[in-house]
Amino acid sequence: MNSLDNLRVNNPLVICYTNDVVKNFTANGLLSLGASPAMSQAPEEATDMLTPANALLINIGTLTKDREKDILTIAKTANAVGTPVVFDPVAVGASQYRKDFCKTFLQEVKVSVIKGNASEILALINSDAKMKGTDSDQNLNTIEIAKEAYKRLKCAIVITGREDIVIQDNQIYKLNNGSPLLAKVTGAGCLLGAVIASFIQKNEKISINYLVEAISIYNIAAEKAELHAKHEGPGTFMTLLLDALYHMTYDDYLNQSDQQEVQ
C-alpha cells in the first residue's frame, strides 16, 4: 500500500501546537487529506495525547512569553514518548526574541524535520540574518542554505518557496509543483507543516521519499485548486484546496509530480 492510501486507512493522529491564526484551516486541511488533527496545547495532557500520536507539529507563529514553557514541555514530552517533532520556526528572523527562543528550542529538543522558507532557515544558522515579518528573500541560494542547515542542525530540512528544497540522508530534491495563490492564503505554509507531520512514519527513520511525497501531494492539490478557481481569488482557492486534498490520489502524485534530485 502506498503512503497516501496508508494515511487514509490509518488516520494518523497529528498533534498541532500551532499559531492562533491558522488552527481551523490546519485542522480542516488534515481532515480533508485523511489524517486526524488535535490542537492540543496543554502540557498536562501531553503524555496521553502524544503517546498514540503519529507526530507533533510545533509552529511558533504566535509565540508569546507565556507559551514558551508549554512549547518546550510538550516537545520534550514528545521526545520522551518517541513521537517525531516537526518544527516550523515562523518569522524567526523577524525579531531577536524569536531567534533566542528557536536557539533554545533546538538545543533542548530533538527535532525530526524543520520546515521554513529560505529566510527562516537561514536565520536559524546565521544570527545576523534578518527578515521582514514572515516574508522570504527570493534571492537566497536555497540549496546551499539547506545543505548548511542540514549539517548544523542534524535533521531533515524543508525549504519552501517558488521551488521547494528537501534534504535528508545527504540526498537533496528540488520540487517544482505549487501555485502562487498559496502565498495569498494565511496558513497555507503552516498547513504544509502539518501535512508533512502526517506522512512521517513513527518509529521509523525519517525517509526523504515520504517528505517529497507529502510536499508534492500538497502542491499538486494547490495546482488543481488554482485550475478550478479559474479567475476567482484566494477565498475560492482556499476552499478548493481543501477539496483538492480530499480528492488527491497516489496516481495524481505519480503522474504530476515535478521533482529532481540535485547535488
UniProtKB/TrEMBL annotation:
Keywords associated with the record: ATP-binding, Kinase, Magnesium, Metal-binding, Nucleotide-binding, Thiamine biosynthesis, Transferase
Gene Ontology MF term list: ATP binding; hydroxyethylthiazole kinase activity; magnesium ion binding
InterPro entries per UniProt: Hyethyz_kinase (IPR000417), Ribokinase-like (IPR029056)
Keyword Nucleotide-binding recorded: yes
Enzyme Commission number(s) of this protein: 2.7.1.50
Domain of life of the source: Bacteria
GO biological process, one term: thiamine biosynthetic process
Pfam families assigned: HK
Binding site for ATP: K115, T160
SUPFAM superfamilies per the UniProt record, alphabetical: Ribokinase-like
Pathway(s) where this gene product acts: Cofactor biosynthesis; thiamine diphosphate biosynthesis; 4-methyl-5-(2-phosphoethyl)-thiazole from 5-(2-hydroxyethyl)-4-methylthiazole: step 1/1
Membrane spanning residue stretches: none
Cofactor: Mg(2+)
Reactions catalysed: 5-(2-hydroxyethyl)-4-methylthiazole + ATP = 4-methyl-5-(2-phosphooxyethyl)-thiazole + ADP + H(+)
Gene3D superfamilies found in the cross-reference section: 3.40.1190.20
Residues annotated to bind substrate: M39, G187
Function noted in UniProt: Catalyzes the phosphorylation of the hydroxyl group of 4-methyl-5-beta-hydroxyethylthiazole (THZ).
Family of this protein: Belongs to the Thz kinase family.
Protein name: Hydroxyethylthiazole kinase
